[in-house]
Amino acid sequence: EAAQQRCPRRAKALFEELSWHVAEEDTLATFCTAAEFDLVTSSLALHWVNDLPLALLNARHVLKPDGVFVGALLGESTLTELKHAFAVAEEERLGGRAPHCAPSTRVSDCGAL
Predict the structure, then answer these.
(1) Is the pTM of this model over 0.70?
(2) Is residue 59 a contact partner of residue 25, using CB atoms and an 8 Å limit?
C-alpha cells in the first residue's frame, strides 16, 4: 500500500489490475490456490528455507501454466573467504571450529530441481 501511495498517477493506472501477496515459500501452496499467479518471485530468501524442493514445488503449484518464477539464492561458493577466515580464527584460538553460515546450495543441485 505504501508503495502504491508513492507511485505517480500514471504508474497507478498501469498497475491498477495487479494484486500483491506475500507468503512464506514453504507454505505458499496452502495460502494460495492452484494456478493463481502469473509471477512468483523470491529474492535471497530461498537459502533460508528448510525444504528447498518443496518450496519450489509450491511456487510451481500456484503459477499459471505460462507463469514465471524468478528467484535468487546464495550459491555454494558464496562467502567462501569469510567461511575460511572463521575456520582459521577458531582453529587458532579455540582448537576447533563450528559452522557459522547456513549450508549453501550447489549450482548442479539447483539445475536438478
Answers:
(1) no
(2) yes
